[in-house]
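Narrative of accomplishments. A recurring question from our advisory board has been how the design workflow behaves on a single, concrete structure rather than in aggregate. To address it, we present the structure tokens for one chain from the evaluation set, followed by the sequence designed for it. No filtering or post-editing was applied between the two.
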């Protein structure tokens, strides 16, 4: 549930709660919060079990499209190619990646060879209150 919150954020929340509520009301607030979370979890599991009882075998048919949707959510173009075209073996793609030179070699600085692409020249930054140039042909 709190997978995106790190330990430092948890400590900040704990210190803020201690400052806001004070040491005498903090244990009661923690008790109330854990009780409310437990009750919400019990309601959710009760609703799931009630749906399962009422729908019977149709409940599994309802869950299949949701499982497929979750599987599709994690698909990337590489995963699709690996799964459907290569049968789960991505060694071909890894070999291809090692055979292709990296971007720095392809698009690095101009080495003096004709036809070699070079990196664009860095543009100078605008001064304070300076208006950017306008390209009237582009607008």
């Amino acid at each position: 549930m709190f997978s995106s919150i790190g330990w430092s954020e948890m400590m900040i929340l704990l210190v803020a709660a201690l400052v806001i509520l004070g040491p005498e009301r903090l244990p009661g607030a923690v008790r109330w919060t854990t009780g409310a979370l437990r009750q919400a979890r019990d309601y959710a599991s009760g609703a799931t079990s009630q749906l399962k009882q009422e729908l019977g075998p149709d409940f599994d048919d309802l869950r299949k499209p949701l499982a497929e949707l979750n599987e599709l959510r994690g698909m990337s173009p590489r995963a699709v190619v690996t799964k459907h075209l290569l049968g789960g073996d991505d060694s071909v793609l890894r070999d291809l990646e090692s055979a292709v030179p990296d971007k720095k070699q392809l698009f690095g600085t101009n080495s003096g060879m004709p036809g070699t692409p070079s990196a664009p020249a860095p543009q100078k930054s605008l001064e304070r209150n300076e208006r950017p140039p306008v390209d009237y042909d582009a607008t």
